[in-house]
Amino acid sequence: MSSASWHARVECGRETGAGFLVSDRHVLTCAHVVRDSARAPVAVAFPHRGDLGAVAAEVDAHGGWAGRGTDPGDLAVLELARPVPIAPAGFAGPDDAYAEPRPRLVAYGFPRGYEEGTIAEYRATAAQLIADEWIQLEAWSAHGQPLAPGFSGAAVALADSGLVVGMVSAAAGAAGVRTGRMLPAHVMARYWPRLAGLVPAPLRPGADPAHLRDLVDRAERAGTALACAPERLYLDAVGPLGPPPPPGGFPSLWSAAWYVLSEVEVPGAAARFAERLRALVESAEEAADLPARPAAAVPQAVAVAGDAVPAPGPVGVREAPCVPAPSAAPAPAGPGAGGRAVWSPILVELARSGAGDDQVLVEVSACRDGRRHPVGSRTLARGRVRRQVQELIEEAFGRLPLDAAELIAFVLPREWLNEPVAHWARSADDPTPLGCSYPLVVTDRARRAGGLRHQLARKWERLDAKATTTVHRVDCAAGEKPNKLRFRLRHDEADLAGFAAPPRSPRLRPHFEASLNAPAPVLLWPRTGCAHDGGDCTGAAFLDQLAAHLSRLPPAELPRHVLEFREAADAADEPDRHWARDIQLLWDDPRCFPDAAPAPLRSPVA
To answer: Parallel, antiparallel, or unpaired: how do β-strands 471-474 and 425-427 relate?
Structure first.
């Protein structure tokens, strides 16, 4: 260890930690060591090469660590301001740290009082990952240097060979407890693709790491021509009986690919992953008019002090996702039995929790193969609902098949049906409205069961065969009585009701209730606008546009076309003046929204 010049001391603001060199310009350390890199400079020094002095560095890639000690992805890749003439660290095999008897492991850190560094001796407790992320370390003996602040980011290496097996990410929080955690090398490679060329990994039958890495590179080159979550490719590759994704999912396409290569033992999973990705990438390249790149070998190497290491190149954690996005409008839902459209909904169910006026029960499920797959359930204050829904929707996409026709369906209490859910941001980092990102509808929670659900299903059997839509206008000044409107809708004189004003309009509120109870399978209205009891109806223009646009469209495809209307409004020069700016679509096909699986009456293993 004394001759291993690749050990590094990392300073950033008030933090001091360790790191280790993996190429002539790249140092690995913990993300929490450089958490203040946006405000404070990062300096890297090599204790065994004092003649090099401190070298400035920048964070070049990040594992996605969110700020808490138990958050995954506590990895940062530092790029040095200049190359250094030091042979980089080498990596041991994936099982070398867990052989019997357990080998002695050493870490070189910089705790308080040890400016030049000191060594701690540890061993791996077991090969079992904690939370699919860390290996537990325990002290080699009851004496000696314990892991402490200043060891974060230190390489954990085999004492006899100096080959690296992982990186120190945490020490025991309680005094006198001599344990810690290590981020093993194969887990680090999930977060930084270029590390895969250095870390030995057990290869599964049919796995070709170089080919898969090339496909990921091509996906990155395709850029905006790709759009989907890596979890969808992973689930498609491992099948319904394969292991679930790790907690928190995959931060990048590469992390999913590497997980299949190095940790999944499902026969043929790696080959299926590569084949599906190849087809998707080729489709995306064709759509984007990108030249296909022939299969490339592993990255070229440069010689550093006699050792070959990967040449520096573009790195990053948040790589391009993986399903071809349409060039103009989303593809229609695929045909099902009888030629009807088949959607794969993500159900977002909101209800009063009963725990207080400000508390909302949020439940999100993904619907696949006619079954609901719960994603998450929380009781939250109303101010926190939007952020939670964003996160759960992103997670739910990982449960849908690759060829799914996605549909976001908000199941709301009747008094919340006018909520602006289509205007909620897609995510905390993407302000694009949800209604401009996916087909989005609302449904009435009160119609989720019983006779109304049965009647709706029968109505959709009739609507499936229709290529056009008959819209019944409900104007603000209309003299039609609510019971007459209910009669029209019950006897199929109209396919849907279009309202000139939102449900809160005093004149139209009884008509809205009658339509819901008819039950009408489709209702449309402007969320804002005319809400008075007399005079000119400002919603008349809205109804004119509905009649012009919907008359030639099949009812089953309305969610997709309303998405197009919302996108056109959002892209207009004056969005607030566009007729579809605040369009709300209640679209209720109970065949698309399966009930939750009932609990068994008896224990299945009794």
So the answer is: unpaired
Q: Are strands 55-62 and 76-80 parallel, antiparallel or unpaired?
A: antiparallel
* Residue 137 burial (10 A CB sphere; 0-12, 13-18, 19+): buried
447: pLDDT strictly greater than 90: no
Query: Best-predicted range by mean pLDDT among 262-271, 456-465, 578-587?
Result: 578-587
CA distance 526 to 502: 6
pLDDT tens digit sequence for 150-166: 999 999 999 999 999 99
155 close to 107: Cβ distance less than 8 angstroms: yes
What lies within 8 Å, CB to CB, of 327 at 6+ separation is 287
Burial, 101: exposed, middle or buried (Cβ in 10 Å; 0-12, 13-18, 19+)?
exposed
Pick from 355, 400, 558: nearest CA to 470 = 558
Give per-residue pLDDT as tens, 511-542. 999 999 888 999 999 998 764 544 455 688 89
Beta strands in 328-424 (DSSP E): 334-335, 341-342, 344-352, 359-368, 371-381, 406-412
Q: How many CB atoms lie within 10 A of CB 446?
A: 14
Give the closest residue to 124 by CA, choosing from 98, 101, 149.
Answer: 98
Q: Is the dihedral of CA 461, 544, 539, 570 positive or negative?
A: positive
Tokens 């399903």 belong to residue: 323
Tokens of 23: 């190429």
Alpha helices in 411-533 (DSSP H): 450-463, 482-490, 509-517
What b/e readout covers 297-315, taking b as 16+ CB neighbours within 10 angstroms? eebeeeebeeeebbebeee
Of 22, 256, 72, residue with least CA distance to 181: 72
- From 246-260, 279-293, 339-353, the region with the lowest mean pLDDT: 279-293
Task: Tell me the C-alpha to C-alpha distance, in Å, between residue 302 and each of 85, 307, 308.
Answer: 12, 8, 6
CA–CA dist 438, 325 (Å, integer): 12
Nearest to 108 by CA among 207, 32, 1: 1
Cα–Cα distance measured from residue 301 to residue 466, given in angstroms and rounded to the nearest whole number: 62
Taking alpha carbons only, the member of 312, 589, 345 closest to residue 459 is 589
